[in-house]
User: Fold these one by one.
Assistant:
Number 1:
Amino acid sequence: MTMRKLVIVGDTLLDRDVDGEVSRIAPDAPAPVLDERTVHERPGGAGLAALLAAGDGHRVALVTALASDAAGARLSELLTAAGVELYPLPLPGATPEKVRLRANGQVLLRLDRGGDPEPPEEAPPAALEVLRDADAILVSDYGRGVTRHPALRAALEKATAPVVWDPHPKGPAPVPDCRLVTPNLAEVCALTGDAGQGSTLTTAQRAGHVLRQRWRAAAVAVTCGPGGAVLCHSGPTPLVVPAPHVAAGDTCGAGDRFAATAALALAGGALLSEAVEQAVHAATNRISHEKTDKSTIEEVRARNGVVVATGGCFDLLHTGHLATLEAARQLGDCLVVCLNSDESVRALKGPDRPLNNQHDRARLLSALDCVDAVVVFDEPTPEAVLSWLRPDIWVKGGDYADGGPELPESALVERWGGQTVIVPYLDGRSTTRTIAAARGGRR
């Protein structure tokens, strides 16, 4: 799916997380005093969907509305820095903001700025032209008015690319003939007035078919969180796509990841069933990745445990890999595997590798009892991800067991007091040898 052009249409806002510490109560009011430590800003709404898709290596254009204020300027800066082509419509008033005040990861208060939604002004010709050049279109509605814009709706109705519409209870109905509409379970109940009686499956099926007929959509995929998704199409029997595993973590962005993945899959010629299956896996991995990034290591370090990391391509998982991973896990309290992405493997092993894509490789590794988390990196070497993880122990396989040059990452790991160690390989186990044997050759 790499290098297809995804055009996203929708409302963008600025998310700002203010993290600090609370150690006292204000003397003039019964309220905690937050001492600010860090501020993190990121695009929200349709901007987050654009950021995620661009981060996966896709060409992404965003048609949205921004005011001429500091928040609008900051969003433009963040999005263009991420490689997103920005097509802004003038927005009267202020760019919407959501400011979360947090202590120890707990939200104390959310402050919303921007006031009531205002309809955006006239769309520039380039914003309409880019819809005609799209390989896929995602409409990411956050109920603030972009998707009500008459010129944009007319252009969406004429689009030849597959349109995936992520609706909002406060937004308008999707344009007719969308390839896929992706409400979550709460939204589908709110949009249909369904009381939600019965199981999740029966509710999703019942309300999803109502929306599909009302909106004249080819299909409606109702996302059900850890329950996966229910695809309601023209046939009487829905397709249920379960989540590949239970993912406990931050769900922010999971819906955006689902919708963008489905749109890009349809652009590549996937069937609706295939697109929804890919989208469920991508959304689940999004949540799992957030858990990897935040919870696993923090939990271990909170109890003064030892974080162990190792890395590799793990293209064809074999017993040699398993022996190395089990040995590494015994050295500490959690094991994080730094996994070379598909792009990284091609650079290291050649254009015919990997045989298995990074999502399948990560899923297989995650299923092992000895692996606590998997982090995928794009660079040829893992220095960047190691600098972020800062493991106490970095484990290498037995290539270096009999001496030779210094291990490549040793100096880096020593900077934060970490240690690099070697564990032995099982003799005779090799991905390259396995591939050669399967092809009838020898190496």
Note: The longest strand covers residues 12-25.
Number 2:
Amino acid sequence: MKRLLMLTLIPLLLIGGCGRKNPVEEISPAKSNVKVVDVATDESMLSWPTWRGPKRDGVVPDQPLLTQWSDEKNVLWRTDVPGRGHSSPIIVADSIYLATAIADSQKQQVLAFDRATGKPIWTTDVHTGGFPSERAVHYKATHANGTLACDGVRLYTAFLNSDAIIASALDLDGNILWQREIGKFVSKFGYAPSPVLYKSLVIFAADNMGGGYLAAVDGESGEIAWRVARGNISSYSSPTVANVGGRDQLLISGCDVVASYDPATGEKLWSTPGTAEATCGTVIAAPDRIYASGGYPDKETACFSADGEKIWSVRTKVYEPSLVLNDDRLFAVSDDGVAYCWDADTGDVVWRERLGGKFSASPIVCNDLVYVSNLSGETFVFKNENDAFKLISTNRLGDDAYASPAVADSQMFMRVGVGKGTKRQEQLVCLESETP
């Protein structure tokens, strides 16, 4: 009877992906023959062009920014967003772009909105059908988790579809320019990472239990420039690129390490044990320091040198939200609602404070003020003042907030949920202070 039961279970496990492996075919720059070149960009139109802003670290360029709002106060406009998605808004010239997914019709879409009015400009169906099964996606997740990236000419995104990660490029009018399967994907909880741009490349992460990888794609043609294997572990962090220690480094946490690669070639520069098996937060960096946190099942927030040496480590779990750095103070808000401030050089706790609620969104910092939203639609604004926590305001907008805000020209754009259950409606909201 036991043997018969096991024989019955084996096919079910294989169907669920538990035993499925997809060996990663690595691609070198020599094999692909894709050239990496500098790309001229108009920085004036790229206000908030990628996940976590212009430098991919949650730091807002210096500008006045409101600290108080509500559903009625300091709302310039609001517009409905179809479907569901944790894709955060990006700001390019006079438009706001988002990814979303419509579960009933199995559509994965990219949306454009007018920045001045919030009116929809266009909707592009990137995929129809091909969604993973419900058991292969976490109940909190969506089929459009990743934030878009834009180089001023093209929009880039990637979706989990038909058991693979499929990258797409669109022009700013919503026309699909190319699509490329960058690798297979065995889903445990869904796909989360956002792409990062480096020169003429678009780089995607896809850690998964069937065979994880990093892949760089030529932004103009969609050709794969390089692809490197990452092992058979499910993790969810987005990659980032930063100049640390005088060289460009592609950085990512997860799979029980913090790792650095040459973004032009995919060559591994170093790999240091740390954080956790599964991480969600994006690594951040200073000119000579790197900071990362995880995760599951381990709990660690750590600082590394430019060459990967672990400088300090604390047993603090920050899983979904990313860290943010402000001068010599490192800030984080844990998933269960505790705000932390560390000395960025030593890892000493400066203070910790319970905010309340659960958190998935990542914080931003502007003019020494930290902004972060919880899953009940409350956004806390606080600062470190004389090495003590100071709450500036608590602001409610809608009923939930999974996405992180985008900021440009003293306006803040937030994707929130209004209502509950089947009556829940996502909205994009533009906040602007009534007084300068």
Note: Residues 1-17 have pLDDT under 50 and may be disordered.
Number 3:
Amino acid sequence: MTAGGAAGEGSGAVGSPEPAGMRHPTGDRPAAALDADRLARVALTWIAEPDNRSVFSLVKQHGAVGALTLLREGGAPEEALRQTVAARLSAGDPLAVAAEAMERADRLGARLVTPADDEWPWPVADLRRLVLAGSTRRVDRETAPPLCFWVRGGHPLAETLDRSVAVVGARAATGYGLHVSTELAYGLAERGWTVVSGGAFGIDAAAHRGALTAGGLTVSVLACGLDRPYPTGNTALFDRIADTGLLVSEWIPGADPLRPRFLIRNRVIAAATRGSVLVEATARSGATQTMHRALAIARPAMVVPGPVTSTMSVGAHELLRQHPEARLVISPAQVLEEVGRIGGDLAPPVRGPARVRDQLDDESTMVLEALPRRGVRGVDDIAARSGVGARTALRKLALLEELGLVSRRGDGYALSPPLTRQEP
């Protein structure tokens, strides 16, 4: 099969190995052709940002090598892309840049993953249908699946993402948000799920650390080169993730963490996972953009509620108001109920602690309520106050005594002392 179909056409269910008919075994193509395809994909992500829909379409039509040749010859289908390509070409030869990137990645211990590889995460193909209505920004209107990924870490990318949940939120998180994020990630990792986030300060870092503490897998999707993960204050955390999980990026080694790239990156977090959880977010938060992208491609979107008095909860609560399909969650079990197997990952219903009096029938409850908080009351008085016959009152009092809720005192009954009663 030629490279023309290697950019994620078609769609498969989330977590499936790949869409039907989209397999690209290495043995089907000469090594030279595969190398040329890989170099061309790297060059294309340097010529234009990785989410460029026009470039993706050209790769579908002509293959990565053909698309690169067309763009270098000025054949971009639109003026904006032609200008972008011209500006990049003035800075260097795309294939030389790609070759240098491959060498830098090799020195870093990173690898390039393309749709020709077994570890390609096919659910990202759903990004071909991502369109955010009502937005005028190009990053919202023109989105496309990735052409390739740079990966640092020993685990296979597709397998690691097959059972994964994104946990995202505010950088300036509150103590509440950090606690919830850590606990959620710990619980998910403990249950064998990969925790995916963006490596930022606040909620992202707390999620990564929660998964690491549980001894589970975590993936950080970066908006820059793998050799300069951002923010630099989390360098030690990124090293831990690379040692036990994965660092992933669409940008070549050495690429800067430019502001627009974070929104481009967010679409991968939304598409590569089974669902996304928003812990805290202000009214204008990049984390809510991840959730909008998840909703746009029909991924489960979940929100942890916060204090209504906190500005860090405004964005999260507004997402719940605007999108009825978004679900409120408060525990790892509820998250897995949304993203797990149908009927296989149901969260237990939320109940208060069991009390002995919950077992009582209506008449027994009325008899118990007829007893005074202090002191003793006779059977006839209890029967009158509870509205039951004297014989019924005696039977119910015997049951309540057996349960430890009342005790006989002379000719009457009294409530058992709190220290000896069998209820909270």
Note: Confidence is low (pLDDT under 50) at residues 1-27, 419-424.
Number 4:
Amino acid sequence: MYTADQSSNTVSVIDPVALKLLGVISLGTQAPAALSPLYKGELLVHGLGFSPDGKTLAAVSIGSNSVTLIDTATNAVRGKVYLGRSPHEAFFTPDGRELWVAVRGENYVSVVDPVHFTETRRIPVPDGPGMVLFNPKAPYAYVPSSFTPELSVIDTRTYRVVARVPQASPFSPNLAVSPQGDQVWFTLKDSGKTQVMRARPPFDITATLDSGPVTNHVALADTPTGRFAYVTVGGLNVVKVYTRDAAPRLVATIPTGALPHGAWAAPDGKRVYVGLEAADQVQIIDTASNTVTGQVPTGQLPQALVYVPGAVRSGAGTAHLQPLDSTKATLTLTLTSGSAARATVSVNPLGLVDLVQIVATGLTPNTAYVLRLTGPTGQAQDLAALMTTAQGGVTAQTIGPVKQLLNAPQGAGQLSVVAKVGGATVLVQSK
């Protein structure tokens, strides 16, 4: 099992049976490298895909516009391909001959020859393609958009878009295709919804679910007791479990750690693995009880997560791995109020400074706020400007010596979210 660690620019390699971190594959230096020319190494490791035989992992770096192909048996880099602006996710075709990459900062899917490390063609789609996955039973690929409320269905034989399916809102980061080839589930991070469509003509939407704020990824699990969809809801720090029948029903809500993001099911359906973006770990869900039964540490800000059957067929699988730097563990804070509004703040050490990320929900829609740090002497400093969406949510990042100020010798500092107009404090760091 692998996670793409966006801040540390690593890929964490995990034994999913022993529930043990084997080590990390370093693809670049930490995030401050973005502040100077980047001549070597990758930046913002974010997306993951793998070949049907399990022998090749594709790691997408959105900051350096690249896809790195890694040998799963040895953890060695086979080669790299540089593409258009901000590729997001990639996956191999069912025959393994091509790697399709959703180039989110452009309006096309790049088709890559994974042997010669070259782009062979571009498939035009609406602006902001977020991901691409294939139907295991029919010649279709599915590409949701992150900027346009439209999902594209591509005929893999002709490389042509054969259907355009309306999305309930523009920002879709993730989708999953059922093993039976009958359903496509895709998430809408901006509106907090999850939609289900028929994977074959007429490719119509069959369900729209209000899954919750900051709906991230979806994993489909065929378990001994039935077929289910596991949806990570970052704004609520939960995973929601739905049936995969004609009228999906919510059957469980599983509390997790901070900001669940990537998710993938084990092939036998007995476990679902969830990456916690703001806690630097993977949590393990037992699908029989729908409870969290364990966790494994990862690199900083894990994003995509994949389970690769057959990745290591012999040996320990630890070649070319580096140990996790435990001194760079993320500090996770919760900001709350007397209402439903809340925020999760992660503070990632980056040497002399920290990367601070806030994900807030339940605030007043279309309203300006600031993330404020108040020192032990009462001196206040605004760290980031926040503008909420129409749903009352916001995600923002900033860099500064925040952890040092929060743990100052003369007394702890405190984070808060304050209205820009009027200065009212709406969220305060929980003790």
Note: Helices lie at 402-406.
